[in-house]
Amino acid sequence: MHTASDPKSIDDTLPTAVQDVLATYLAAKRAQLTAAEPSAGDAVDALADFVLGGGKRIRPTFAWWGWRGAGGAADGAEAEKVLTAISALELIQGCALVHDDLMDDSALRRGKPTVHVDFAGRHRAAGWHGDPDKFGAAAAILIGDLALAWADDLFTEAGLTAAQLLAAGPAWRGMRAEMLAGQYLDVLTQSDGGAPLPPAEAAMRVARLKTAAYTVERPLHLGAALAGAGERTVGALRAFGGDIGVAFQLRDDLLGMFGDTAVTGKPAGDDLREGKRTLLIAVAVTNAEQAGRDATVEMIHEALGNPKLSADDLDRVREALVDLGAVAEVEARIERLTGTALEALASAELAAPAGDRLAALADAATRRSY
């Protein structure tokens, strides 16, 4: 058991503590499922490798500091139950990423083959009947679904009280629904350009739903609700989380375009090749149109959604994004959102040391380098 004075307390070793919960849980679930159907072991192993093999545990971290900031205990039986419950957020993240990679036809995640690519490769290597890519897609859909189902199981079976489950229900349900709505909006805007919304507004709505809501805002809401926080505290934390979550996504967009693959784990320019209409792209196109730079607009549109985009063409788009002021504008938005988020955080009147920890998390999430 962790203690507040122990240097190995949950406050100080949260990612490791979450990892331990997940490893134990997934091993137990594997044993249960393979007892019913041994062939499912490969799917569970792939899920476990994916969930345990990377990630910074951002969502449970924000949930934990929502709990602590609203007066939740740092150690003891109740804290351990909350730790178990919020670890379920990593399984929701696993579902989202596995499905997202499939929808975007991404080849790499964290420097390794994505789940659908991995299982298509297994099919080819074994010489099985049928289409390897269809098998890979089917496996990824089912593995993502399994992660989502087990997230619910882990959360509801963590040992929380009936009152805690009732209080946390709106955050838990809202987070899942908003994540899926944002994912759908993301897919839709790749097809309709975000119509009838202006491109920049559509991009910001995707960022708020797909990333901010389930990465920062709702985890904070969840943790605070588990601690019995009032509306004022929850409102301040959600305001902080919404703005920091969007800033986090905007930083991710910049990293996706300009970042080092060795650091990000995904090829630079993947969002462009996948046709994602990020704020970065929306601002660049709008600025080019206003400047009468039709050739530049055409170049960006030809690159958007082109899976065979060359390195030279990517460099030309990146140069245009800088030249058109899109990078500077996105950086400015990140700064503004971070500022309003920190103002909301200051108004929350959280128990120490949650305010300081959340401010540090905000800085780390929004100031990642290329």
TrEMBL record:
<keyword id="KW-0808">Transferase</keyword>
<dbReference type="InterPro" id="IPR033749">
    <property type="entry name" value="Polyprenyl_synt_CS"/>
</dbReference>
<dbReference type="GO" id="GO:0008299">
    <property type="term" value="P:isoprenoid biosynthetic process"/>
</dbReference>
<dbReference type="GO" id="GO:0046872">
    <property type="term" value="F:metal ion binding"/>
</dbReference>
<keyword id="KW-0460">Magnesium</keyword>
<dbReference type="InterPro" id="IPR008949">
    <property type="entry name" value="Isoprenoid_synthase_dom_sf"/>
</dbReference>
<dbReference type="Pfam" id="PF00348">
    <property type="entry name" value="polyprenyl_synt"/>
</dbReference>
<dbReference type="InterPro" id="IPR000092">
    <property type="entry name" value="Polyprenyl_synt"/>
</dbReference>
<keyword id="KW-0479">Metal-binding</keyword>
<protein>
    <submittedName>
        <fullName>Geranylgeranyl diphosphate synthase type I</fullName>
    </submittedName>
</protein>
<dbReference type="GO" id="GO:0004659">
    <property type="term" value="F:prenyltransferase activity"/>
</dbReference>
<comment type="similarity">
    <text>Belongs to the FPP/GGPP synthase family.</text>
</comment>
